[in-house]
Amino acid sequence: MINLSLKLKIGLSYFVMALLVLVGGGASYLSTGQLGKALDTVTGPVQTTSNAVSLGIQGVQLQMMAVEKALRLGISQAKDELEQGRQQTSRAYEIIKQTGMLSEQNLTDLETALDDFNSITAALLDMDKKYRTTYSALNNNSQEMLDLLLVIENYASQLIVNEEWNVDVAEGEDTGTRDSPQWAVTAATADSRLALMTRLNIYRRLIENYENSELKLQAENALTDFEIYKDELKESPILKGKYMEEGKFKGLSYIDVLQKHFDEHSQMFADGVRISIELDQKRSEYRQSADMLMNLADKIQKETRASTQNEIAIANNAKASSVATAAIVALVSLVIAIGAYFFSLVAVVRPIKSAAESMREIAEGEGDLTVRLQVNGKDEIGQLSQSFNGFVAKIQNTVTELAQSVSMMTVSADELKQLNSQAVNLIHKQENESTEVSNAMGNMAD
Predict the structure, then answer these.
(1) pLDDT value of position 273
(2) Cβ-Cβ contacts under 8 Å for 152 (sequence gap 6 or more)
(3) Closest to 133 in 3D by CA, of 279, 280, 263, 260
(4) What integer is the mean pLDDT of 125-139?
(5) Rounded to whole angstroms, how far apart are CA atoms 350 and 345?
(6) Which of 98-102, 172-176, 275-279 has the weakest average pLDDT?
(7) Under a CB-based contact definition with an 8 Å cutoff, are residues 253 and 212 in contact?
């Protein structure tokens, strides 16, 4: 058996209890660390990524609304919203990139999708700008032709009025001016305006439904009619030598200006339809790109949520582990505490109680100095028991020596008493003898 001092035993008990506290604290620290890590992950990169994805989705949606507004009203009306959406989307991408929560593949796909979306958006808006420019030019060209045809018609009408005023005919008689070139010009200009307006009406319908073959045929027929009326005006003798007197075409003949407008109209009409088709294709590409980007964002959002759920599961596992560890530590602590209690009973309390009982027997009993405390070990209680036994042994030796001295004194007292008795007897004998002598002397005297 290992001999330990009482101080060491008590210190060992406290050390074990302190060790249990440290183990429990360490387990709690580790569990808290896991919980904290999971919480930091959920509230840190994962939450930041989720917020950034939401921010990016809002940015893309803001750009899409700005694009729709630009397609309706023009880029100048949606420039600020479009730039705001781009900046918001770019900022969201940088945040997602910095968190490091996305895989390289997802990050690459997101970057590619953003670049495609921005590129297609820019191409769409540029195509819309071309479409608007062409449409505006076509309207300006048509208005200038209408104005020119009106000038030609007014000129021909004035000639008709002048001719009728100068013709001397009876009342109700036909002047014959309706068969004149002037009347032909006014009819041609009216038909030309009608053909031009028909073309413009067909154009507006055609850009909405460019695959409609019937509208295409109507547009070609209207152009053919317009060309016929234009050629009639070109062949009219009253317009030969007639020049523009003001405006940007000043100095050019009516026919040359009309031909120039006609050629430009034909080209602008064709360009407008072609650009409208390309614009519609760009819109389709834009929607596909936006859908792809939104689907990718939704995928990232789902992965982020799954990561959040995973971290929550880790936190729950850490929580369960922490509870289990705490329960185990508490149970082990209880067992060791009970063991320490019984160890204290055996190693400390029982020897002290035994020593106290022995001392009580010595103090309250018949004073049996032969009683000795049991010495177990070399600890303080053992030393106490050993010292007590030595003390009692010394008392026993002293009492024994005292008893022997008392016994010897008792024998001497008995001998002295016997001598004293003999002396008393001698004295009594002498007194008797003296009495007899005295009596004899008295008798002799008588």
Answers:
(1) 92
(2) 185, 189, 233, 239, 254, 258
(3) 279
(4) 93
(5) 6
(6) 172-176
(7) no
Q: Let me know how long the chain is.
A: 446
- Buried/exposed 381-408: b ≥16 CB within 10 Å, e otherwise: bbebbeebbeebeeebeeeeeeeeeeee
Rounded Cα gap, residues 413 and 253, in angstroms: 183
- The verdict on pTM exceeding 0.90 is no
What pLDDT score does 166 carry?
62
Query: How confident is the prediction for the chain on average, in pLDDT?
Result: 79
Residues contacting residue 46 through CB under 8 Å, at least 6 positions apart: 101, 304, 307, 308, 311
Q: Residue 152: how many CA atoms within 13 Å on its side-chain side?
A: 38
**Looking at residue 173, what is its pLDDT?**
46
Which residues lie below 8 Å from residue 386, measured CB to CB, with a gap of 6+?
A: 373, 375
pLDDT at site 201:
94
Q: How far does CA 289 lie from the centroid of its chain? A: 27
User: Phi and psi at residue 174, in whole multiples of 5°?
Assistant: -70, 130
Q: Is the pLDDT of residue 245 over 50?
A: yes
**Higher pLDDT pick, 4 / 379:** 379
Q: Which residues of 63-100 are buried (b: 16+ CB within 10 A; e: fewer)?
A: bbebbebbbeeebeebeebbeebbebbeebbebbeebe
d(CA 443, CA 435): 12
Query: Tokens 């063991």 belong to which residue?
Result: 339
Instruction: Please report the DSSP string for 192-204 in residue order.
Output: HHHHHHHHHHHHH
What the block records as the tokens of 333 is 């602590």
- From residue 254, give the alpha-carbon distance in Å to each of 27, 169, 185, 230, 261: 100, 33, 12, 11, 11
In the DSSP assignment, the letter for residue 177 is G
215-251 burial by CB neighbour count: b if 16+ within 10 A, else e? beebbeebbebbeebbebbbebebbeeeebeeeebee
Q: Is the pLDDT of residue 262 over 70?
A: yes
Q: Is the dihedral of CA 49, 54, 60, 66 positive or negative?
A: negative
Q: How far is CA 159 from the centre of its chain?
A: 84
> Which three-class secondary structure state does DSSP give residue 370?
coil
